[in-house]
Amino acid sequence: MSDKSALKELLPELDLIEDRGLRTKTLNVWAEALKEGGWKVSDLKKIPFTLLIETQVSLLDHTRAVTQTALAIAETLEDFYRDELPIDLDALIAGALLHDVGKLLEYERKGKKIVKAEFGKDLRHPFSGMALAYKRGIPSSICHMIAVHAKEGTGQRRSTEAFIINHSDFVNFEPLKHKALEG
Question: Which CATH class, in words, describes the domain spanning 18-182?
Answer without folding.
Answer: mainly alpha
